[in-house]
Write a structure and sequence with these properties.
TIM Barrel; two-stranded antiparallel sheet; binds zinc ion
């Protein structure tokens, strides 16, 4: 069985204080460097992979981990990269630098609206700085890998971006919450019908959501398998696809063919 993992992370999350407790949730399975990353690929028999930086409570760290993504891409043939950007004014310069220095093997831009403070993917919430970075990102034609879920990452904000700009966009977690799935899946069908390049991955999606999506959509061609390692658990994410009641060819589309076609890898 061939597997392309369309979204997972590199870079140590470490220990942070959260509600007065010191927590180290990834202890024992951190992906600190390229060596750890290669072990993860080998252990799980991953043919190709798209890696992005881990993001931490300090918003600067993901930008630092862009170097790790570039290193992994350079050292490992089967690895492609998604670099972190954040369009809010305090990270404008850093994001511009990323967008001006896209190297071979970088095929996506990773972003999480939950780190955008008062801004959301809805263009009506943007100021001039945010608009400038977002337009530059969209015009790059790299696929935007956008976190979806609650608050700033709610599909109601994301759909405004898609309606206004028609970006090439990979919606991580397929909406991310129960309401997110309810909002996204019917819209995804419409976007696919109108020829928009909107894709969703299966990481973190609730059990029902992937089953519903494969039943409801006319084709599974816009769905990617992703583990979101180390946030997601590779084996259970994979089992979610293997156990779907669809043909082997449709499983292969989700497991690798779609990502290969869309990302050109
Ligand atoms: Zn992720």
């Amino acid at each position: 069985m061939k597997i392309v993992d369309a979204h997972n992370h590199i870079g140590e999350w470490g220990t942070w204080e959260y509600r007065k407790y010191r927590i180290s949730p990834f202890e024992g399975f951190e992906i600190k460097d390229v060596e750890d990353y290669e072990t993860f690929l080998q252990k799980n028999n991953i043919a190709k992979s798209i890696v992005c930086p881990t993001y931490c409570p300090d918003g600067n760290i993901a930008f630092r981990y862009n170097r790790l993504v570039e290193e992994a891409v350079k050292q490992l043939d089967r690895v492609y990269g998604a670099l972190w950007i954040n369009p809010i004014p305090e990270f404008k310069e850093k994001s511009e630098e990323v967008l001006n220095n896209i190297k071979k093997g970088i095929i996506a831009l990773k972003m999480s609206p939950n780190a955008w403070k008062q801004f959301t993917p809805d263009p009506n919430s943007w100021n001039r700085d945010v608009r400038e970075i977002m337009e530059k990102a969209i015009e790059s034609r790299l696929i935007l890998q956008m976190h979806t879920g609650s608050q700033n990452s709610d599909i109601e904000h994301v759909e405004k971006l898609i309606d206004e700009y028609s970006p090439r966009i990979h919606l991580v977690h397929m909406g991310g919450t129960v309401r997110g799935h309810f909002k996204l899946i019917p819209r995804l069908k419409e976007w696919i019908e109108t020829g928009l390049e909107v894709y969703a991955d299966t990481s973190w999606a609730r059990g029902f959501a992937v089953k519903w999506a494969v039943n409801y959509l006319d084709s599974v061609k816009n769905i990617f398998f992703a583990s979101d390692n180390p946030w997601g658990d590779f084996k259970s994410e994979l089992e979610k696809i293997k156990s779907l009641d669809i043909s082997d060819d449709e499983k292969d589309m989700i497991l690798y063919k779609n990502a290969e076609r869309v990302y050109g890898i």
